Amino acid sequence: MTALFALATSLLWGLADFGGGLLTRRAPALTVVVVSQSIAAVVLGGVVVATGAWSEAGPRLWFAVAAGLVGPVALLSFYKALALGPMGVVSPLATLSVAVPVSVGLLLGERPEWTQAAGIAVAVVGVVLAGGPQVRGAAVQRQAVLLTLVAALGFGTVFVLIAEASTTVTGLFLALFVQRVINVLTGGAALYAAVRRGAPALPERGLPWNVLPAYAFVGLADVAANGTYAIAAQHGPVTVAAVLASLYPVVTSLAARGFLRERLRAVQAAGAGLALVGTLLLATG
User: Fold this and answer.
1) C-alpha span between 258 and 274 (Å, rounded)
2) Which residue has the higher pLDDT, 28 or 88?
3) In b/e form, how buried is each residue of 74-110, taking b as 16+ CB within 10 angstroms?
4) In whole angstroms, how far apart are CA 215 and each of 16, 21, 191?
5) Where are the transmembrane segments (predicted)?
């Protein structure tokens, strides 16, 4: 179950990050974060009401509040980095987020078997190579690297916090809702401050209605990924769940190949293969 939900996490995050990166090329990153997370908050609010998840409120929700404060910083940094591109700079470095939950798991006493340890090493190397890392170049690329490192630290922290926010499915709905509400409040405050400084809140031609489904997809896929990761981390070793969930850059790279016709370099193809081998080792360990 851990492997299945963690792989679902990587698929959802990979597609959400790809969509968020594309939207940020046409609209301010803060606007993408606020609009996508607002849509997700509304949907989750309906789910919470329908399932009666309010009854699950308790001290653990503070983990969701903390995740909601950290999340917008990570998302904003990541979307800006994706907009600066190329994705070969951003995607592989984002896998460093796995260091946070893996470290926490090891500190809590988790000790993966040798096959799992080998799978972790192979998968991480494969994901880095799958992004086709290009860390040399113009100042814009160096800025993308810095933003991605900030995002990776934030994502890793959210991994840990959201896994602790609830122990039940309905409680998880409530935790994700609280996290999104805090996301919107934090991102909205940052957007308001940016507008006060003269930054645009919307694209030059406004925000057309026909693009809202794309924002909804990004927000809901991100929510679903947080949920599947929480389930994966609660039903198995955090070290395994975190590494399998970190395969999302492979999905982002493949999406760029399929939709943007970005060509996969030899190192990327090799990296994707190694990531698959690492996944098999983790799943069978």
Assistant:
1) 20
2) 28
3) bbbbbbbbbbbbbbbbbbbbbbbbbebbbebbeeeee
4) 9, 11, 17
5) 32-54, 61-79, 114-132, 144-163, 169-195, 207-232, 238-259, 266-284
Share of the chain above pLDDT 90, in %: 23
Mean pLDDT, to the nearest integer, of 249-255?
76
Mean pLDDT score, 12-28: 86
Region 222-241: what's the mean pLDDT?
Answer: 86
Amino acid identity of residue 285, one-letter, is G
Number of structural domains found in the chain: 1
Domain that includes residue 85, residue range: 2-284
**pLDDT score recorded for residue 269:** 67
How much is the pTM? 0.78
Nearest to 277 by CA among 95, 75, 167, 115: 115
In the chain, the N- to C-terminal Cα span, in Å, equals 13
Q: Judge residue 188's burial from the number of C-beta atoms within 10 Å of its C-beta, 0-12 exposed, 13-18 middle, 19 or more buried.
A: middle
